[in-house]
């Protein structure tokens, strides 16, 4: 192989930190943003999906700052493990690695032993001052990599809140100790700030700068063409087709180019040497290579890049089902509006499978869409350990037919599992509600069948009584005809027989009355049950049937049964009360819709939306609607907690930039959520500055 080909083979690298001299390193906006903010002394964090180029970015920044006289210490937290150590051992390991990187390990051990009475966080703060800053006059940058490892630490033994609060303390000390202005931090990993730090008042993330690390753009990727040993036109076409498949995803883009120029290890024999490729053959060649690399065999299991995406979705126990439902919408090409406050959207982006573009959430590229397809989605559903998953999927696959609904003890178990859960999906709620309605209908059908059987038995008894009465009457008539001499006695017997028949008739009527009363009471019970569940139309129907039962019978029986009309009035009053309850449901729906509309207006209207949901919750409605209102209220409280940090961060940013009017607006919005003296002080500062203008 000639030297030119060897050079091209060394041009690309897929995965891992790129060497600083690798010509295929692509400088993105993040390179300039991170450099600028570290130089400005900002706390920086690069939190994004795996294999996006975080490590390579870190190496480049370290090299650039070192050339300007900075001291750098890069700490990989995976080296510490996640078990079998005390909090003190973890902090010792962390600070020792920093000291070692800055050639201070000899000083560190002696210094550490003299601080045994201090807490680990207090030692860390003193370490910055007494070991690092005292022995170096240069600016220092500490890079904490693989920070998501901290999510696996035992929360009972190790507080990530304390650790990051200690980092923030170093920034807070800049006001009283100017030497701390030389100490800077940058966090790298695959995590959300809210997962790393629970306490919003102590977190450094709300005073830091989020460094977005995006895919390669077409213009940024142009440098890759220099590594392709072919003509300019062909190289342009190859780059365009590769970007079509990857959308500029760093690992996938480098992977395709690396294999493309490495003919000896190429996975397909369908490719010609690059020097022989014609312009019209480029698309087909790249397509065959992509298929051979990614679409043959079990790519999700065999390639760690794709298996990591799979694991980050499936093993997110709290949001995996919501993530899959959202991904199903994207897979079906439904429009999904991007929402930075949506946990399922956030974790799909951290998994690396989706991105935000022009206000919409999209699947990152055609390669992911082909690998993580409908077949993968169904398999993912089957691996999730949720009691309803299998039955729910069968119901959906059968077009939501009644045959696939739950019943009996299985339904009771499902209802117990779903009780008080806040993470039920819309499909799970629909599935449970449909199962409940079917169970009610089956019980009612059973009651109707039992009533029918009772009526049939009563009819048979009445017929037997009538036949017996007729036989007795005929017998008495024959006796009277044959024995005239006993006419008086026969007449008496006939009278007795008639009286017996009359008593039987009265008894039969009384039994019919009792049955009517039984039906009346049952209709009242069924009406109340429907009313409690919020099924108002069915409740009204049952109350009307109860009234009709009393009214119809009053026209057809003896006068003493008119006393039952009083119970008919009870049914009328229940019907009136139900109508009032329906009015409550209408007001409930209005409050809910107004809350949803305010929520869509944006974060400045979240407090108003919360008030509408609270109004809905205060109404006298059924348990299901109260659960819906409580769910909306809980969701809005979560959004307000998150947007509160945004308002404070925005206000601080505008205040530093002397944008006092914008800062005042942000602080006032935050004050509506949580009113503190600190916020009021900032509002007073902004107001004073505006008055000066």
Can you give a write-up of this model?
This protein is mostly helical. It is built from 27 helices and 7 strands. The strands form 2 sheets. A 5-stranded parallel β-sheet has the order 2-3-4-1-5, with helices on both faces. Helix 14 (320-331) packs antiparallel against helix 17. It is elongated. Mean pLDDT is 83; it is low at 1-7 and 554-563.
Strand order within the widest sheet? Answer: 2-3-4-1-5
Coarse structural class: mainly alpha
**Could you give the distance between the termini?**
73 Å
Count of beta strands: 7
Shape: elongated
Helical fraction equals 55-70%
Strand content: under 5%
Low-pLDDT stretches are 1-7, 554-563
**Mean pLDDT value:** 83
Q: Please, how many helices? A: 27
- Describe the largest sheet: 5 strands, parallel
Radius of gyration over all CA atoms, rounded: 39 Å
């Amino acid at each position: 192989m000639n030297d030119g080909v060897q050079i091209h083979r060394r041009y690309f690298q897929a995965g891992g930190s790129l060497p600083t001299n690798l010509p295929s390193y692509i400088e993105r906006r993040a390179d300039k943003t991170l450099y600028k903010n570290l130089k400005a002394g900002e706390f920086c964090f690069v939190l994004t999906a795996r294999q996006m180029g975080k490590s390579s970015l870190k190496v480049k920044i370290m090299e650039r700052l070192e050339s300007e006289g900075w001291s750098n210490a890069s700490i990989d937290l995976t080296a510490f493990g996640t078990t079998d150590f005390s909090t003190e051992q973890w902090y010792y390991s962390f600070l020792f690695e920093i000291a070692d990187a800055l050639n201070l390990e000899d000083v560190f051990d002696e210094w550490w032993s003299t601080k045994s009475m201090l807490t680990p966080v207090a030692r860390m703060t003193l370490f910055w001052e007494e070991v690092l800053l005292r022995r170096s006059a240069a600016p220092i940058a500490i890079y904490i990599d693989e920070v998501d490892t901290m999510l696996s630490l035992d929360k009972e033994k190790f507080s990530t809140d304390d650790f990051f609060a200690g980092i923030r303390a170093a920034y807070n000390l800049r006001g009283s100790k100017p030497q701390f202005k030389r100490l800077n931090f940058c966090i790298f990993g695959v995590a959300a700030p809210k997962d790393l730090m629970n306490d919003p008042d102590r977190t450094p993330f709300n005073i830091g700068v989020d460094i977005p690390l995006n895919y390669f753009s077409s213009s940024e990727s142009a440098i890759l063409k220099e590594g392709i040993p072919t003509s300019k036109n062909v190289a342009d076409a190859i780059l365009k087709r590769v970007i079509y498949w990857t959308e500029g995803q760093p690992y996938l883009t480098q992977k395709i180019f690396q294999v493309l120029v490495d003919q000896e290890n190429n996975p397909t024999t369908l490719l010609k040497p690059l020097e022989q490729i014609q312009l019209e053959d480029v698309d087909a060649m790249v397509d065959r290579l992509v298929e051979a690399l990614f679409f043959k065999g079990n790519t999700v299991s065999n390639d760690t890049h794709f298996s990591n995406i799979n694991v980050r979705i499936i093993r997110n126990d709290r949001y995996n089902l919501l993530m899959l439902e959202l991904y199903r919408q994207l897979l079906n090409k439904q429009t999904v509006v991007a929402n930075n406050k949506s946990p399922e959207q956030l974790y799909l982006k951290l998994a690396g499978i989706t991105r935000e573009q022009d206000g919409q959430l999209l699947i990152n590229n055609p390669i992911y869409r082909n690998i993580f397809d409908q077949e993968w989605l169904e398999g993912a559903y089957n691996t999730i350990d949720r009691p309803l998953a299998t039955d729910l999927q069968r119901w959906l696959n059968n077009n939501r037919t009644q045959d696939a609904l739950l019943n009996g003890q299985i339904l009771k178990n499902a209802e117990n599992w779903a009780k008080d859960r806040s993470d039920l999906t819309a499909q799970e709620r629909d599935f449970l509600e449909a199962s409940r309605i079917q169970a009610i209908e089956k019980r009612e059908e059973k009651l109707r069948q039992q009533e029918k059987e009772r009526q049939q038995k009563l009819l048979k008894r009445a017929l037997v009584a009538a036949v017996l009465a007729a036989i007795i009457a005929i017998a008495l008539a024959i006796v009277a005809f044959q024995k005239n001499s006993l006419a008086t006695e026969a007449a008496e017997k006939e009278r007795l027989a008639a009286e017996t028949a009359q008593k039987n008739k009265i008894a039969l009527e009384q039994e019919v009355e009792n049955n009517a009363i039984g039906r009346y009471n049952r209709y009242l019970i069924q009406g109340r049950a429907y009313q409690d569940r919020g099924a108002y139309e069915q409740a009204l129907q049952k109350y009307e049937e109860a009234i009709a039962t009393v009214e119809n019978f009053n026209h057809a029986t003896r006068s003493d049964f008119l006393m039952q009309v009083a119970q008919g009035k009870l049914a009328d009053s229940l019907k009136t009360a139900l109508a009032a309850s329906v009015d409550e449901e209408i007001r409930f729906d209005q409050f809910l819709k107004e809350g949803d509309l305010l929520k869509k207006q944006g974060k400045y209207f979240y407090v108003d939306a919360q008030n509408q949901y609270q109004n809905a919750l205060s109404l006298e409605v059924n348990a299901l609607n109260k659960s819906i209102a409580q769910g909306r209220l809980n969701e809005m409280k979560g959004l307000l907690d998150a947007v509160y940090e945004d308002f404070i961060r925005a206000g601080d940013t505008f205040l530093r930039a002397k944008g006092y009017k914008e800062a005042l607006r942000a602080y006032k919005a935050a004050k509506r959520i949580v009113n503190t003296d600190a916020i009021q002080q900032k509002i007073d500062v902004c107001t004073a500055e505006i008055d000066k203008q």
